[in-house]
């Protein structure tokens, strides 16, 4: 496939020529969470046509953003991972995500959330300064998606899946955005049923302070 060009000698233009194609940055977003097999990427991006996913991966590999390797196990499958150049996109992806999060309202028809998108969302809106001195663990149940976050004195680890023994379990839907945007207080979120929790209420307030759109 011939890459579209803008005909300008400019860093931004060159970046857009590599990652500006539809789906490219979304693939990078998911690979920022960790290496993925082709089937993992397709499962996390259910609306991407198979040929487009293959083409984008090829283009990103040719540009030195993505590389392939074999998993270190007998019969290991091919996985895709970001190169050092690809990892250099993390700050840009997170800043774009933070900018876009301020424009979210209600999900449109057919719009879904995915595990990788929510992992990156939490990493994006995490406020290290607000987390100084905080040690807490959270399990988030967001419809069909479950992920967890562990905070240790200003540092954050986020991953998909449940966390047995989490200090606070939060069950919520898309309206969780209202709490994270500061549009409602934790008390209002509980009273209105925006969130349900298992654990100390004070940790919900901490959550809303540490994660903020």
Question: What would you note in describing this structure?
Answer:
- A hairpin with a 2-residue loop joins strand 4 (135-142) and strand 5 (145-152).
- The longest helix is centred in the N-terminal third of the chain and has 13 residues, at 50-62.
- The N and C termini lie far apart (38 Å).
- This protein has 10 helices and 8 strands.
- The protein is an alpha+beta fold.
List key phrases describing it.
213 residues; alpha+beta; 5-stranded mixed beta sheet; 40% helix
Tell me, rounded to a whole number, the average pLDDT.
94
| Portion in strands | 15-25%
Uncertain spans: none
Order of helices and strands: HHEHHEEHHHEEEEHHEH
Give the overall shape. Answer: globular
Record field, number of beta strands: 8
Helix content: 40-55%
Protein structure class: alpha+beta
Rg measurement, Å: 19 Å
State the strand order across the main sheet: 6-5-4-7-8
Biggest β-sheet: count, sense, barrel? 5 strands, mixed
Question: What is the end-to-end distance?
Answer: 38 Å
Our count of helices gives 10
Blueprint of the fold:
Layout: H1 11-19, H2 24-33, E1 36-37, H3 38-44, H4 50-62, E2 66-70, E3 78-82, H5 84-87, H6 90-101, H7 115-125, E4 135-142, E5 145-152, E6 155-160, E7 168-172, H8 176-180, H9 186-191, E8 195-198, H10 202-210
Parallel strand pairs: 4-7
Antiparallel strand pairs: 1-3, 2-3, 4-5, 5-6, 7-8
Helix pairs in contact: 2-7, 6-7
Q: Short summary of the structure?
A:
The chain is of the alpha+beta class. The chain is 40% helix and 20% strand.
């Amino acid at each position: 496939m011939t890459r579209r060009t803008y005909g300008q000698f400019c860093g931004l233009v060159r970046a857009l020529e590599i990652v500006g194609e539809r789906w490219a940055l979304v693939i990078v977003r998911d690979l920022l969470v960790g290496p993925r097999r082709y089937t993992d990427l397709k499962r996390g991006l259910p609306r991407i046509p198979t040929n487009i996913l293959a083409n984008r991966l090829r283009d990103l590999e040719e540009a030195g953003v993505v590389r392939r390797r074999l998993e270190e196990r007998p019969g290991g499958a091919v996985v895709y991972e970001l190169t050092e150049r690809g990892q250099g996109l993390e700050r840009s992806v997170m800043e774009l995500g933070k900018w876009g999060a301020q424009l979210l309202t209600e999900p449109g028809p057919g719009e879904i959330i995915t595990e990788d998108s929510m992992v990156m969302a939490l990493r994006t809106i995490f406020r290290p300064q607000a987390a100084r001195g905080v040690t807490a663990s959270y399990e988030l149940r967001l419809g069909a998606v479950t992920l967890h976050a562990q905070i240790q004195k200003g540092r954050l680890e986020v991953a998909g899946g449940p966390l047995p023994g989490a200090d606070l379990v939060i069950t919520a839907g898309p309206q969780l955005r209202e709490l994270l945007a500061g549009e409602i207080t934790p008390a209002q979120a509980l009273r209105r049923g925006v969130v349900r929790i298992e654990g100390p209420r004070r940790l919900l307030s901490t959550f809303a302070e540490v994660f903020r759109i």
